[in-house]
Amino acid sequence: MANIKLPAHKVEELKEVCKQFDHQGSELINVLHAAQGLFGYLPAEVQELVANELNLPLAHVYGVVTFYSFFSMTPKGEFPISICMGTACYVRGAEKVLDEFKRLLNVKVGETTPDGKYSVSCLRCVGACGLAPVVTVGEKVYGRVTADDVKGIIAEYNS
Amino acid sequence: MVKGRQLNRLLFTDPETKQKVSDSKEMGFYKKQIRIALRNCGFINPENIEEYIARDGYAALGKALSEMTPEEVIKEIIASGLRGRGGGGFPTGLKWDITRKVQAEQKYVVCNADEGDPGAFMDRSILEGDPHAVLEAMAINGYCTGASKGLIYIRAEYPLAITRLKIAINQAREYGLLGNNIMGTGFDFDVEIRYGAGAFVCGEETSLIHSMEGNRGEPTVKPPFPSESGYKGMPTNVNNVETYANIPVILLEGSAWFSSIGTEKSKGTKVFALAGKVNNVGLIEVPMGITLREVIFEIGGGIKDGKKFKAVQTGGPSGGCLTEKHLDIPIDYDNLLAHGSMMGSGGMIVMDEDDCMVSMAKFYLEFTVEESCGKCAPCRIGNKRLYEMLETISEGKGTEADLTRLRNLAYVIKDTSLCGLGQTSPNPVLSTLENFQDEYNEHVKDKKCRAGQCKSLMQYVITEDLCVGCTLCSRVCPVDAIAGEKKQVHLINQELCIKCGACMDKCKFKAISIQ
Predict the structure, then answer these.
(1) Nearest-angstrom CA–CA distance, B160 and B46
(2) Model confidence at B505, in pLDDT bands (50, 70, 90)?
(3) How much is the pLDDT for A1?
(4) Partners of residue B21 on adjacent β-strands
(5) Domain B49-259, CATH 3.20.20.140 — does that match?
(6) Does B2 score more than 60 pLDDT?
(7) How far is B349 from chain A (nearest CA, A)?
(8) How far is the C-alpha of B85 from the C-alpha of B422, rounded, in Å?
């Protein structure tokens, strides 16, 4: 099943993490958090590795990965753009902002641009409802975003 | 304040009277609030345990450990009338008592910080602003129930709250307020953090426990309740962050004081996340029994841009929409439930005349469809079908028979789903059907959306008499759907138009309207 060659030093690091958690199956979610932090996403190869280390069936690991929206099996763009679709943001026009991102970057939600630079996703409430609608690019948060601002936000990362 | 003098320029101006307000206590936003759960938020440095201690922090734990038996503490909590702030409203003291009475080698105390409700952020604020209050209350809970281990299940989306919790836990250990032999009383209690991974259903306590065990967060049938058999099969007491934040104050001030606030069956205060189309948005903590009118028009400062109030949605995706006629009912668990909504974790979204109720119901359904764990059929399939019906209606293809089917299916899902998520998921549909029947009828019969939100049902048109031919609209149009020469009346090509509304927002002459 393995197709991608994982960098050896990262594999070692992940094994170390599993060791820290005592190879306990009940720590699966914590291990997956660490793994996603290391690799950026959770391809089948990483899941296999985790299943082996924690002595769990691969199907169980896959089941958990696909259950939680935080875990992703596809790599994100260099600048992951997330539009908050929580209720407060929605009421204040997040959909228009999302439409504008989709139109300008020509991708659908969950996709990455062909150059691997931007990916667009929706998220559920970052808890900054006072700033609605909210957009995050990587760690940076943009508040009170309007459709007009979208072009400028993309341009910031376009150099 | 500069050198003890007030700076007039920076004072808050009342939007109605245009007067400067010199004391924050006099501001409409604060006047009606009582801060119990949020007592320390913004007042102390959450990364310094000494500031918490200076404001009577850990005094309640000390009092419980040295002066009271576990039974006495539980009695006090029961007497206070505190009910679960996560939404269910189960009496907290009773829950503790059940966990205490079960015999087991190991028991667990869990703090539910998986705040998945879109639009609610009170738990995040408490954890970021006053993490020790939660730790102290968990330790008190451990003392009462006989648990020596505490677990905080927190969303991975809250990195700052996680960082501050970690700092708080380490500081509390250093000060001997967590760990072995707390305050020299022989009581052991320690806390660990567990991360969520983005699943709304994990706010349900059985799902949460499965998630902490490293499994898919699917709920199981209750009973057995977690108080009897929870984490690793052991008795587990699960409470919400805001519930915990109330505990230390109740022990210090007494149950009589706490129960003097609120209504007959709902005591104390509730934190709401006021958002949407009101002038003042943010977290508010108000006594139970306050009316929606006071919250929206006095604390919230009324509707934005002078528009007309239409509805307020409480309880998140599990709640319902309340209208004008509900504005004067006192807010408490039972009243909200009786009127087709619920307390939930305290999201409160205000909507004005520009919001379409069918779209609103559809929005919440979309959320439920995505977040349904898929274990039971009514929720997994039923909600998907509900969503499709709403979609048909909002596209103008619905019939009157659809409305009947919508209602019937909603009741079936409500009655047959396994957990709280499914049982409450049709609430947004049912409450909007109940309160905004006209609007549904318009969508179905007249193929009209009065709020202008259902894109398939509307057209942007230019009124000839008002258009001066300034070309502004054709320049902002992202798809070049507007044609017209300078100083000539412009025209929108309906086939190209993507209905983004940019032209209408830009037009200075109000020449563009929705039909």
Answers:
(1) 11
(2) confident
(3) 47
(4) B12
(5) no
(6) no
(7) 7
(8) 20
Spell out where B315-444 has E strands.
320-323, 347-352
CA atoms in the 13 A half-sphere facing the CB of A9: 0
* Residues paired with residue A120 on neighbouring β-strands, in sequence order: A81
Tell me if B119 sits within 8 A of B275, measured CB to CB: yes
| Strand B320-323 to A135-137 pairing | unpaired
- Does the pLDDT of residue B1 top 70, yes or no? no
Mean pLDDT for chain B overall: 91
Token output for B44? 């102390």
Residue with tokens 């009496």: B91
With an 8 Å Cβ cutoff, are A87 and B276 in contact?
yes
Top residue of B126, B164, B192, B195 to mutate, by most chain A CBs within 10 Å, is B195
ipTM of model: 0.81
Residue B191 near residue B135 (C-beta atoms within 8 A): yes
- Domain residue spans in chain B? 1-27, 49-259, 269-343, 357-446, 459-514
Strand pairing report for B108-113 and B149-154: parallel
Q: Which of A29, A103, A127 sits opposite B158 (nearest CB)?
A: A127
Closest CA to B342 of B135, B104, B75, B89: B89
User: Measured between CB atoms, which of A67, A103, A126 is closest to B157?
Assistant: A126
Give the list of residues 6+ apart from residue B304 with CB closer than 8 angstroms, or none.
B277, B278, B279, B352
Three-state DSSP state, B307 = coil
Q: Which CATH class is domain B459-514?
A: alpha beta
Query: Quick one: CA torsion of B288, B290, B294, B295, rounded to 10 degrees?
Result: 20
> Per-residue DSSP letters for B309-345?
EEEEEESGGGSEEEEGGGTTSBPSHHHHHHTT---TT
Return d(Cα B229, Cα B208) in angstroms, integer.
Answer: 13
Residue that the structure tokens 């001066």 belong to: B468
CATH class of the B269-343 domain in this structure = alpha beta
Contact B77, B250 (CB under 8 A): yes
- Strand B320-323 to B347-352 pairing: unpaired
Q: Which fold has domain B357-446?
A: de novo design (two linked rop proteins) (1.20.1440)
Q: What is the pLDDT of residues B364-381, one digit of tens each?
A: 999 999 899 999 999 999
Hey, what are B301's tokens?
Answer: 């400062």
Pick the CATH number of A79-156 from 3.40.30.10, 1.10.3370.10, 3.20.190.10, 2.115.10.20: 3.40.30.10
